Amino acid sequence: MKEKSLKLNAVLNITKQCMNLLFPLITFPYSSRILNADGIGKVNFALSIVSYFTLLAGLGIGSYATREAAKIRDNKILLAKFTKEIFTINFTTTFISYLLFFIALFAVPRFSDYRVLLCICSSTILFGTLGFEWLYNAKEEYVYTTVRGICFQVLSLILLFTLVKTKDDYVKYASINVISSAGSNILNFINLRKLVDFKVKAKKEIKKHFRPILILFASAVAVSLYNELDKTMIGFLANDEQVGFYSASTKITKLVIALITAILTVISPRLSNYAENNKEKFFELLEKTFNIILMLSLPFMFGLIVMARPLTLLFCGENFEPSVRIMQVMSVIIFMIPLATFCSSQVFIPLRKDKYTFYPVCVGAVVNAIFNVFLILKFGGFGAGIATIIAESSVTFASFVLVKKSEVSIGKLFRNFWQYLLAGIVMAVVVFLLGKLMPSNVVFIFAQILCGCVVYFSVLLIFRNTYVNGVFASVVNC
Model-level pTM? Predict the structure, then answer.
């Protein structure tokens, strides 16, 4: 297979993530004002419950299958054999997941008022299995996945404005969310035969996949515990309204993180290939990737801290005022999560140190659960935000402790860190002062963002940052 352009892949995947970012930014201001914090809270509580069963159905297959399929993607026979083996495992775990889901649906009293909502949200479990997203990533089919995703988002947008009219339409809102996030997986399934020849006959070897999959599954469980446990525990320990405030505050932060980690998704298959065949290129690409993460995560973090209030009021409305301080606290994860993700997806998995992905997230899950119990009871959604920051910090620290045990030099990775930090601080000060002088409306908010970008990258140019100077020189020479 001809090696596809990493730059084009990155642009396409970032475009897809930008659409994932833009879609909620268009829909959430509308839905939050129609459904209010209570309706938004109900849907997000249901989604958090379903996420555990989705996790069981996925069984950590995504990361493992992407890595292994990327190595054999040019061999049609091996790829077809591998795909059949993975699907057999995935289908089995999906069946078990649904079985446990329906038992929980009637066994847990708290779910009695959410049964219809939970059943609708649970369709993402099946769609996730049929989607074979790992195969499309391994084959670097980013043109197809980007166009497909945009089409379903436009359809969802039309349905939202057409069907969601009152605060009682939260079930319709949940259905539209499912169409937006997972509906396109049906097309993946239909298009699958273009990527894999299922007529190839070969003996299935299922058992050899269990150990690496289970290691990554254990890591995924721990990640889910401190990503989704917040909303679940707020739902049990507080109320739907607090879930709504917390969900609103994390909406933008999680979307920004998804935008940054989109780069990691694109590069992971290539790194797995280089780790196996060309270590020099592996370390070179690794350092570039880390600098891009620092370059993006720090300004986003500082920017969201100083602009939390106008952004919350713009996208959620005045009823979501309690979300402002939660968003300010949660902004720190924009820096923490991409760093931890880098360690796991760009270092540990390509270098076959799968068990290293497990230890840090276990630490984070335990820390998050302990702090959630005390902080949610006292501070509600704000307490969950503080617990998340503590947990993510522990995960990131533990991850880099383990990176030191690999062949990767942490010193080389962080040598430009001070440049991004100082540029981010200067940018934050400028944006904060502009916010004091400007009224809070759409035009001035975008003016602040644009001005912040100019200030940030100008400071990096003054520091003669290698990566920014390289991009600037390329633009000038065009």
Answer: 0.66
